[in-house]
Structure formats: structure tokens, C-alpha cells
Amino acid sequence: MSSSSLTIAGLAKRYGAFVALAPTGLEVPAGEFLTLLGPSGSGKTTLLSLIAGLATPDEGEVRIGGQDVTYRPPYERDIGMVFQNYALFPHMTIVENIAFPLKMRKVRDAEARKRAFEALDMVRLPHVAERFPRELSGGQQQRIALARCLVYRPSIILMDEPLGALDKKLREQMQLEIKRIHRELATTIVYVTHDQEEAMTMSDRICLMNAGQIEQLGAPSDLYFRPRTVFVADFLGESNLLPGRVTARDGETLGVTLTGGAGSGPAIASGALPAVGTDVTVMVRPQNIIVRAPVAGSGRLVGRLTDVMVTGSLTKLYLEATTPGLPQLVAAYPTRSLSDGHEIGQLLELDWQPSDAVAITAAPGH
Ligand SMILES: Nc1ncnc2c1ncn2[C@@H]1O[C@H](COP(=O)(O)OP(=O)(O)O)[C@@H](O)[C@H]1O
Ligand SMILES: [Mg+2]
Q: Would you state the pLDDT for residue 364?
């Protein structure tokens, strides 16, 4: 299967005065798995529809494999699409459903059938070929929708929340399945989800969207451990977001005094290095927090344990800072045994590695 690069240049879409997508640029190399992630209404579907040709932009260009396709209809773009609502034809068998796009493309019957069976193998459902859609589960129907898109070998596949209707277990299974197919076919995939875990699991890169704009674009671990904004830090999962001010700077390392007076220990900047005196938010992921008995005079953050939650594989400690002006604190570590001796109300000092503390300069939300 061939695979194409995708270029978005200055692409914008408005509905009346409402900006659904502000002018946006994006380069997706051939073969990449890119995820558009963001809250509901952030412009993910708008961007995907412009790539697909289901909507017309107010400005800008879409190029697929270097060719300007901005004003071409969807069927002239060499793309495949899979949506949450898989819309199989109820009166056709599974193999007829899958062969349908080939028939539209005037492929001979025997050849279409052969390729439909290949696509069925690809999604590991060869035995359902002669059934009707109503005889399949939701997860199986979604695989058939995927097979119907794979069958004509598009060079880019666009997926809009394709697993949104499935339960958690099935969704995780399908995530692995789609990843496997991506590896085998090396096709370019632009995938939309509002689920940060799904995006982290599946993507080569994540394009995090907020209010019709790209908030940050990068590898999942970049966004997770080096968020440029508080919005990114917050969207990508649980974190400690501690307001403070830069009080020292030594090369790339910052000294930050947290609101309330505790020291953050050394921190690193996720973007441009802020000057002494700048307000920042220090982000530390829960699993990077080390808790221990308070050491007198250490100047470190101290919290009072308010809750212990065992979520299966992780144990989470929730703490209330003993200094004012800080939000609830959370530390997490792999659950080792039934009881690990923490007592509600006890005081614990919070520590972390300098490289795990990220000073974010941009104001919340931007
Ligand atoms: N046809 C339309 N007319 C008016 N507003 C629209 C239309 N389509 C989308 N929007 C608005 O544009 C914004 C972005 O929508 P969308 O791209 O569907 O978001 P997402 O897929 O990230 O949830 C939303 O506020 C939505 O209400
Ligand atoms: Mg959407």
C-alpha cells in the first residue's frame, strides 16, 4: 500500500463570526500516525473534514503527496475514512459491504471479492464474510468498517473517534489492532480522539488542539513530560501544578519558590528560559513524586495525607500542602501490597528529581 505525506498550510474555517479553525499549519510525513487530540469543540472534526474534502476552507491549502487538493472532492483525494458511526449497508453481506468501494471504482467482481477477503484477513474476521451486519457485535462491525476503508488501499486514512462507541476493553483491543495494521501497511493515519490515553498509546505524534488552534505538537512523551502550557499539562493526565516564582537561574536550571514559601528544588523550563521574577507553574507528574518523612529545615514542600486510593496497579496519595495557596497534591507509585503503612493525617515531605520538575511560563490556557 502506498502512503502519502500531508501538508496543511494556513488552513482556516469560520462559521459566520465563529472561528472553528484559526489559520493552521501542519506537516505530516508519509507513514506517520498523527493524532488530533483535544476537548469537545476544539476543532478536530473541522480540521479532519477539511483534509477529507467534506468541508471547504475559508483560507489556506491542503496538499496530499505534494498535490494541492484543497478544492477537490473527497473521492479524488486518495483517502479512506472511518467514523464512530460505521454505517454498513444492512442488506449486503459483509464481503459485499467491503467490496462495495471497489465496485464503485469499477474493479471486476472476482478481483473485488479476492481483495475483500484480504481485507477481512487483515482485520482478523475471515469467518464472517457471508453474514449480515446485524449478525455482528459492535466491535466486529467497526473492524468491518476499517476493512472497507483498507480495501481500496488509500494512501492516507482519516479516523474520527472510531472507537468512541465501544466499551473500554474492546476499545483497548482495537487500539492495538489499528496499531498493528498501521505497522503492517505503513500508511499515513490521521486519527481523532478526545481520549488522552488513547492518543498516548497510539500516536507517533500528538497534535493537541484547543479552541480552534494547535496548542502543542510533538511526541506523546514531549507533551506529557514537557508541556508548554498548563492546558497541555492538565489535558494529558493527572499532575501537580504548583504556582510559584523564579528566584534563581543557573544555566538551564531554575530555582523556584512556590506560593506559600516552600522551595521547588531545581526545575527546568519547558519553553524559553524565564527570567528571575517571572511567575511560573511548576508541573510534576504524580509518579515522579517521592514522599518521605519531613526533614527539619529542608525548606521542601510538606503535605498532610488526606486520602489513599488503590486503583489496582497504582496507589495514589492525596495530600494537602501545609503552606497556603497551593492546590491538592498527588503522588503515585506502583501498588506493591495490600497495606503500605501510610496513615491519614500524617505529614510527608515531597521531593522529585530536578529533571521531573517543569517550569511552565505561559499563562493558564495559553
Ligand atoms: N456546521 C457548523 N456550523 C456552525 N458551527 C459549527 C459547525 N461545525 C462545527 N461547528 C463549531 O465549530 C467548533 C468545532 O467543532 P468540531 O470541529 O466539530 O469540534 P471537535 O471535533 O473538536 O469536537 C464547535 O464549537 C462547533 O460547534
Ligand atoms: Mg469531533
A: 43
